[in-house]
Amino acid sequence: MALLFSLILAICTGPGLLDAQPSSHPFGGSLSRVRLVGGDHRCEGRVEVQRAGEWGTVCDDGWDEDDAAVVCRELGCGAVKKAISGTAYGPLTQEDQKIFVQEFKCNGMEESLSQCEREDFFNCNHEEDAGAVCGFPENVRLVDGPKRCQGRVEVKHQGQWGTVCKASWSFAATKVVCRQLGCGRAVLTRKCCNKATQGQGPIWLRKASCSGKESSLEECPAGVWEKSNCTHDDDMWVECEDPFELQLVGGDGRCAGRLEVLHKGQWGTVCDDGWGEAADRVVCRQLGCGQPLSPPTKFRRRFGPGAGRIWLDDVACSGKERSLEECPHRFWGRHNCNHAEDVSVVCAGKSWSRVHRDIMRGGEGWRSLLRCSPALLVLQGILVRHFSNNRNREETDNEPHTTDLLM
């Protein structure tokens, strides 16, 4: 029984958590700065705070959009889009980097994180780093298109929206716009539009060029926006791919199930040819669902086969990618599979370490432990069968009957 408890506890807590120690910094020490690290631009990434000249991370306990909104406001990054938990922004380059804050308790109206109530002593690890995705202050948009990531380019200058003349535009600038708007890969830029969908108002021309690597148009080489001599016949149209999305379906929560990816507006499955633990890690990281578990094949089949398109095959991840999109694979839609080979993934979930702390502090114990993640239903089925088969022997022990605890 002790061995069994240790096994489940290890799964729920992840590596290193049992050795976590309180921060060496005094409680209530001042936080001087905040930054977002590891994202596609300065307004997205892992939250890091500075104390006494040193940068440290923030544990994701209680981390929500109220907390993330304060980060976005403090950085001048516009409205919050999403609060992130887990390892979505990849491993730290310095694994020994300190964790400064256990939990922020912001109401969402503060001007900076330093104004929020917080707990400075921590009992977590870097698998639980908090993150945030903010929107840049809106100064570019795509309008009158069939989707959010397609349309006529408009930029905001001196508080006024206007179109962009083809004379100032390039495919590199299109790449920047797609990235800034959180869309996928740049696909097309062309002259826009018929008379019915032409823009109105000023036509802005920028005397500058982008390399295509910038996070926003504001980062393109210095230049000025000015009214041009173009007409709206010269307005520019941009098309980006839809943002890459994935989901786990058919399970008991969002962190376990059959893997599906979104392509061309349609959800489809992934074939298990070449799939391995490294790919599991990428999926769990991208979803903010902690570490992958390795349940028996029989358990994975409980999620059932998918239907419709099979989008990916021969996916070959190293395990270090931030997104499944970065892993090599066959071209979209090319495969030699059927839905009996659909990939399923089971992740530990993000609440594992909080359960461990509850147990260590005299919380609900076994019941709390077994709620640490929907994915632990893997163990539930295995353990119920094991202890049912050994009921007579277990009833002679002094420990509580595990079958009852698991149900």
Automatic annotation (TrEMBL):
UniProt key word Disulfide bond = yes
The name this protein carries in UniProt is SRCR domain-containing protein
Name which cysteines form disulfide bonds: 106-116, 210-220, 317-327
Q: Which InterPro entries match?
A: SRCR, SRCR-like_dom_sf
- Residues of the SRCR domain: 34-135, 140-241, 246-348
Organism expressing this protein natively: Gulo gulo (Wolverine)
Q: Which GO terms describe its molecular function?
A: serine-type endopeptidase activity
Q: Span of the secretion signal?
A: 1-20
Q: Please indicate if the UniProt record lists Flavoprotein as a keyword.
A: no
Q: Which GO terms describe its cellular component?
A: extracellular space; plasma membrane
Give any single GO term for biological process: zymogen activation
| PROSITE patterns attached to this UniProt entry | SRCR_1, SRCR_2
Q: What does the UniProt keyword field contain?
A: Disulfide bond, Glycoprotein, Repeat, Signal
